[in-house]
Amino acid sequence: MIRDLVENGSVIQIIATVIAFGLIVSSVLSLVYIIVGGITFILSAGNEEKIKKAVHTVRYAIIGLFVSFLAFFLVSWIAKLLDVPFDLSFSTVLDLMNSLFVSFQ
Predict the structure, then answer these.
(1) 49 inside domain
(2) Total domains present in the chain
(3) CA-closest candidate to residue 86, choices 19, 23, 21, 5
(4) Residue 39, in any domain of the structure
(5) Higher pLDDT, 47 or 103
(6) In the chain, where does DSSP find H-type helix?
(7) CA distance 105 to 100
(8) Is residue 104 one of the residues assigned to a domain?
(9) What is the extent of the structural domain holding 56?
(10) Does any domain span residue 35?
(11) Residue 105 pLDDT class (50, 70, 90 cuts)
């Protein structure tokens, strides 16, 4: 998919793929930070500073995930509003994830 996109894709298709890739990266990073915050919370041993740090880590990871999905939907909505032929959907994200996972194997 990526090679075909670079060879035959238009600028709009490349931008849509970059936005989809950004959503994938932000989702994975948010998941990692939620896990790190949870582990920090478990290992805090009652230390108030470590608990606050862990709670803030989880909170900001969830806020970041929400903002990234909100940005994804806003870009899709504005593209439809302005009649830009922007193929940006979750199927694009899933196809990109599939091609990335296949390339790592």
Answers:
(1) yes
(2) 1
(3) 19
(4) yes
(5) 47
(6) 2-8, 11-42, 48-81, 90-104
(7) 9
(8) no
(9) 10-92
(10) yes
(11) low
